[in-house]
Recover the amino acids of this structure.
């Protein structure tokens, strides 16, 4: 849901189910898929039909609502919580949303739990849209400032992975400032990192920027450092799957390399951070569990042939071994600031600005 | 040509032609291709049937021999020189080899030029093998030292692109120390950067390491920084397409990002440099022309389907714009040392060790 795209990425479908945009078929087809059971929801998260920390959280919340419809007993709800929690390890929004819904339901009589669960999941989704809109408003000031420094050309923003509309319920995190700037008439151009191995930049970010009419250029993940050395990047904005109390940012593998290049070239490196992605219980990023995904995600690539067939091809010889760590940690010293719903926050000020969250949890 | 692979990547085929291994079909097929005209040679270099700075140089030298066979006049040789020089802009070996052969032939009577050209091209190829073997011997000491520091596990080497046997006439540059270490019984394991967009790591380096029996693991280009942060890389070795007098290294796009990560983590970053790749006339890397290749190299990927067909697939939606700078410059401050045929040379000592080359040219 942005000015350029009025839909959400997940919505209640009635009859105890939700519909999602199945992101595994993009950009070659934009298909919706119905999730009617906890198993459906767990599968959709694990195979990344939905992905992106905020959307994983919202989907898990709806998963708890689906579970409560089927069996509102405490045991069943706890089982659903645990099953969904096991789908992916890195994004903290998953645990945050599951715990939020479970803690809302447990004190209620069983008969009231399903209704309350759907309401709570809707609240998680609505809040995500509102948080991202606020991130967009705060981030817009950074793009406005960059434009004021060089008014004669578009502001060049580099982003990694997809922290866009598709990674959230609406607006996106890293893309929200871009969409706000575009809507405000500020000329903006986005360098889209391809984001191997899952190609979320090539298949998702490029697609949603095109849908919204935002100028953009796809680049190999290798190219960003070169562009920064040549002065072709004004600022970087990425999302995050979990940010520690000291401001260390865990995000899609490769984020760290771009942050190093930004630091080496005096390019500001921003991370868009809705507060559910903050893990103040973690003192530093070193303790974030890094998901190791299947080697086949590196060696096989899906795409569309010239005559329109969707095929998956192996880019290596048979039997080439591959490793696939899905996330890395960017140390706080490389992060210029976090763009949050409460404003632009330097890493060392995270506790000061969001400390109340820790006390409340 | 290594201990594990007795063939060269280019060889005279008789009747005024050369045969090459066509690297565009690897790893799915290892096919040879005959080059019988200057046009064949120019096409093979431009579309990267042969690639890698040293092999580009040797191929161009054979191209001059083919030209001399057809027409040994000075005008024809100069035309061949210019046509071959225009095929690719970044690797300095191309200009080096073409000038070398042309300067050898010009003083000769026309009737002697063809024979001299073939002999000179053979010499370029033979010297490449010898230079790389010497690089291997010097680089071996670095791997031996790393092994001595951690004798209980394999030495983990990270490399980017293919600076292997396939990038040269034999041995490879960055891989020569690895092959020498493997032959010496030192346990070594190579992290192979996929190297988007042309996937030379996935399709060439992984293939040739497998042929030679060297343990290796393919990774997305995004993963190297994470592995270095986790202590899983002992040293990096890459090749170079052109190294300036101050030690700035121009190499495959993405090299700079790995050098930044190595520097940030105290991992030594070595560049294997045969002297024909050195451009002492250039004071710094900023002046190296960076080749911009076709956008389709980013948006389309060739591979093999599960049922064995070779297909090329588009990974983006139709019409996604892409940029494709093929090289970047790694500043000398990030390069621990250059591994040359004359030994291990810190960047600031390049002029001292190789200054005679400049005087001679």
């Amino acid at each position: 849901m942005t000015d350029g795209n009025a839909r959400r990425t997940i919505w209640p479908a009635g009859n105890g189910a939700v519909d999602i945009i199945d992101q595994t078929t993009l950009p070659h087809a934009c298909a919706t898929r119905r999730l009617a059971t906890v198993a459906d929801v767990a599968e959709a998260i694990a195979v990344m039909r939905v992905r992106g920390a905020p959307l994983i959280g919202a989907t898990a919340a709806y998963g708890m609502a689906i579970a409560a419809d089927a069996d509102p007993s405490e045991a069943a709800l706890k089982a659903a919580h645990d099953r969904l929690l096991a789908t992916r390890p890195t994004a903290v929004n998953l645990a945050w949303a599951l715990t939020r819904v479970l803690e809302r339901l447990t004190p209620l009589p069983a008969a009231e739990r399903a209704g309350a669960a759907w309401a709570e999941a809707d609240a998680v989704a609505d809040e995500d849209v509102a948080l991202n809109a606020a991130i967009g408003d705060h981030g817009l000031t950074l793009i406005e400032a960059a434009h004021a420094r060089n008014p004669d050309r578009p502001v060049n923003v580099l982003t990694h992975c997809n922290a866009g509309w598709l990674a959230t319920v609406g607006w996106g995190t890293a893309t929200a400032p871009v969409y706000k700037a575009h809507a405000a008439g500020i000329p903006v151009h986005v360098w889209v990192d391809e984001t191997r191995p899952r190609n979320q930049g090539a298949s998702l970010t490029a697609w949603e920027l095109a849908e919204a009419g935002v100028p953009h250029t796809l680049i190999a993940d290798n190219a960003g450092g070169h562009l920064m050395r040549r002065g072709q990047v004004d600022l970087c904005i990425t999302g995050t799957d979990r940010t520690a109390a000291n401001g260390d940012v865990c995000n899609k593998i490769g984020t760290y390399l771009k942050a190093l290049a930004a630091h080496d070239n005096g390019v500001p490196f921003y991370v868009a951070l809705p507060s559910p992605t903050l893990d103040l219980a973690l003192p530093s990023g070193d303790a974030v569990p890094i998901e190791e995904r299947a080697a086949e995600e590196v060696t096989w690539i899906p795409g569309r042939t010239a005559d329109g067939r969707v095929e998956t091809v192996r880019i290596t010889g048979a039997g080439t071994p591959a490793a696939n760590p899905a996330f890395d940690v960017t140390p706080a010293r490389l992060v210029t600031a976090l763009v949050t719903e409460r404003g632009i926050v330097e890493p060392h000020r995270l506790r000061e600005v969001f400390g109340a969250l820790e006390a409340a949890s």
Remarks:
- Residues 14 and 36 of chain B are 10 Å apart (CA to CA).
